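Weekend entry, working from home. Most of the wet-lab plans are on hold until the incubator is repaired, so I used the time to fold the two sequences that have been sitting in the queue since the last round of cloning. Logging both here for the record. First:
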Amino acid sequence: MATEDIKALFGRRVRQLRTAMGVSQEAFAHRVSIDRSYFGSIERGERNVSLDNVQLIADGLGVPPLDLFKFDALPAADAPPKPTPPAAKPARPRGRRKPGG
């Protein structure tokens, strides 16, 4: 992690917090009034984000700006993402009778 660029770390942390909220990148960008493509480039670590935008993002995530810089909470960059649990199958009703029977 020490060799990773600060912009990449910041972007990964923002993505981590946003996905934990269950909000899409596009919906979040709209919520905080940041262009979707610009926000995407922030999460990819391609942008040197202004303090104004750091505050907008922190407010949108409901965290203090300092939380966006807590890089020790990040998984390793090369770690595979956690698998998404499969959707639960709807329960089949029990004791159904056959028609006419």
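Second, folded right after the first finished:
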Amino acid sequence: MTGTAADRWGEALDSWAVPEPLVAAAGRSPWGHPVAGFAARADAEILAPSGASFERAVEALEVAEAATGRSGDVLDIGAGAGAASLPLIPWASGVTALDPSAEMLAAFSARAAGLADAASPPVAVRTVLGSWPDAAGEVGTADVVVCHHVLFNVREIGGFLEALTAAARFRVVVEIPPLHPLTWMNPLWEKFHGLRRPDVPSVDDLVAVLHEQDVRALSVDRWVRAEAETLSPAERIALVTRRLCLPPEREPEVAVQLSDQPPAELHRVVTLTWKGSAASQA
């Protein structure tokens, strides 16, 4: 790989493309995310928020309030059902959720309404259907910008990160796993298709892009989250079978393989935070 760190990130993500004959033979896309899993994660985080990402976002909101004399607002990029931003409502004056999925935003809204109304004073919540950074002009800026478990889906990482920085008046808070979230499936690809899958990019490659952009006050927290499985065993088997470009009738074979690879109860994650560049309203 050559070029910039951002170029190398994009080239590494290209290597994750599934061979077209496998997709055609499966007759269905291997991609997509079940809303139920995101909803369960959001519910767990709302009930008992914890971890470095939550702590760094709260710290940033407290800094924003000290500087401006008002509660800060939050912009959640790739919000899903709200696991990143809804736990922050007690510290926020407003939350904007951006996501390309109307189903995800419906799940977000269902959880946000009660939380926002119960807050004192009530918190303004809005949802925007769209993708980042295309929708940057529509959602505007915020004191704190959060973006959890999105970046391994972003090929054009340079512009995406620059737009995050430009949208934050105080701090950007990003959470991702240390490796591509599907890396754990690599042995299954070899088992069913004889196909070697990549193990890049990693969070270190993302840090290299951020250094390339000369972001300010970058911090990196590597930690472990205790997390219950968000899908039932049957849902997990069906999802992995689809991810592997196998037809539904192969689910029993996949189930056998998954029995040897039970879902981990501890998940390694990384929180990256840095200063935003949007003009402060202090």
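Plan for Monday: verify the second prediction. The chain has one domain: 5-21+32-179+200-230+265-275.
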